[in-house]
Structures are given as C-alpha cells and as structure tokens.
Design goal:
- The strands form two sheets. Strands 2, 4, 5, 6, 9, 10 and 11 form a seven-stranded mixed beta sheet that branches. Strands 1-3-8-7 form a four-stranded antiparallel beta sheet, with no helix packed on it.
- By secondary structure, the protein is mainly β.
- It is built from no helices and eleven strands.
C-alpha cells in the first residue's frame, strides 16, 4: 500500500512560481510511475506531468517549458516545479502513482494511488 501526501499549493500572482511536493510511503514507491493531474471547477481532471522510475519525464503541451517534474528516490518524494504560472493553471493538483510502467500516462484510471490534492490559485 502506498500513501501520497501533497503540499506546496497556495495563492500566487501570474508569472510567479510554486513547487508542489508529493511525499510517499512504501518501500517500492521508487519503482512506480508518478504523475500530477489537475482539476479546475467544472472541468475534467487533466494530465499535467509524469515521471517514470527510469527518470523519463512527460508533460502536457501547455506546461512544457514552464513546469518540471522530478523525483528524489532517497526521500520518496516527487516534485512539480511550476514557473511562469498563468491564471489558467488554477486548479486542485493531485499526485498519483501507478504500479505499472506500461500503462498510458495520461489516463487517470491507470493510476493506483492518489493523494488528497492541493489547491493552486493564480491571480491575474
């Protein structure tokens, strides 16, 4: 069993930065694919970024060049550094972990464990 706890959300002005953290329990977490998703009010949950156990990273087009996902295996933590934030980035951000590296990264149902989410609000 893996438990995920997000932190680092908050209110920031457009153009600002935030770093989200996803701390995980479980000795096998380092072998999991970990992703960040977000959901704005009235919208579907959408994929933001993911990192495989190998270190390979993937991003949705709208955050490429602004967001960076990384993992610290020693700390069992995955980070999402968000720079040049825009009002349209406002959402609840959740991290998720998948036991399988073969599943499609952008599909929420392919993840086995979820955190509770952290609110990110970007003011214009």
């Amino acid at each position: 069993q893996v438990q995920l706890v997000e932190s680092g959300g908050g209110l920031v002005q457009a153009g600002g930065s935030l770093r989200l953290s996803c701390a995980a329990s479980g000795r096998t977490f380092n072998t999991y694919t970990t992703g960040w998703f977000r959901q704005a009010p009235g919208k579907e949950r959408e994929f933001v970024a993911a990192v495989r156990w190998s270190g390979d990273t993937y991003y949705r087009d709208s955050v490429k060049g602004r967001f960076t996902i990384s993992r610290d295996n020693a700390e069992n933590t995955v980070y999402l550094q968000m720079n040049s934030l825009k009002p349209e980035d406002t959402a609840v951000y959740s991290c998720a972990a998948s036991r399988s590296s073969a599943r499609a990264l952008g599909v929420p149902n392919n993840y086995d464990y979820w955190g509770q989410g952290t609110q990110v609000t970007v003011s214009s």
